[in-house]
Amino acid sequence: MPDVLIHGDTVRSPELRHEVPLAVPDPFLYVERDGRRILVVASLEVPRLEELEAGLELRSPEHFGYDDLLAEGRDRDEALVETYVRACRELGVADAVVPAAFPLELADALRAAGIPVSADRKHFEHRRRAKNEAELAGIRRAQAAATAGIARVAELLRAADEDSGGALLLDGEPLTSELLRAEAEAVVAAHGAVPEDLIVSHGPQTSVGHELGSGQLRAGEPIVLDFFPRDRESGCFGDMTRTFCVGEVPEELRRYHELCREALHRALAAIRPGVPGAELHRLVCDLFHEHGFPTQLSKRPGETLADGFFHSLGHGVGLEVHEEPSLGRNGTELVAGDVVAVEPGLYRSGFGGCRLEDTVLVTEDGHENLTDHPYDLEIR
User: What distance in Å separates the CA atoms of residue 142 and residue 227, rounded to the nearest whole number?
Assistant: First the structure.
């Protein structure tokens, strides 16, 4: 087995957060060699890291001559790079794999010192596929926060009134995407999660997948809520989407919603270890083909779809909101412990769209749905 090196902080590096389940905001070096797991990390972080009892060996930069390098006049960053090189030499690192985002400056310094490093994205994706207990608990909390946020928006939509032109009002004031997003953000935060770019789009905006949404809502138009908050404790994400309509539902939107519910049902029923993500994607595309909608599998090579089902069926969820495995055209086989978001959608430019999304855990004999919110389209 090759040695493993990871450098970064655990707030922004999912590879490092998987190994060190604690929010450490400053970069440090992780070394894995011959069964040992060593951190070269500032002493101020040592007490918290010791409390983890995670089998980590802790070394400060001073152990590898950091003070001497500063005394020579090296600046802090240069001294740290040399400290990490010295640490790798002393620990016997001879040939290491690193994440794709490993710093080029450090990689160059290691190679110049005769220590080969090579980026291996798949190696680190594989390490993180099956979620550990702490990550799964965090995903559950994040999903509960998303559910609570969407429930709050649904509550406000039920309380809305229409003016004479069909615009929605709440307590006599315009009901906007911005107001609903602020309300949802407060609820998500109260559930211990960070509300990152919650989508509250409406009308034609809903045909643009990641449009955040803006302006006053109207009766009879699609309203798409796509929430993917990050759990503060674990750094893991949740992900869910629901589509609503206040007042009379257009037949086109009702058709979209019925087909998306059927697509979600079929995909969830097929989820189990060993099933390729590409097969799940094809299953949903086949359903939409049958009803006359273009998909990624029916379009011409090079064509960019603006209508129909123009994205993949879903993606892994964990320390990144979009990670392996893919539920797209080249999706690989699912494994027990995967957490995946399943999100069929149908859209038409100028009108809007519908998307439904559940996040599920792949179990040994099927799946567990981590999402607990009804799929109802009509707000009454």
Answer: 10
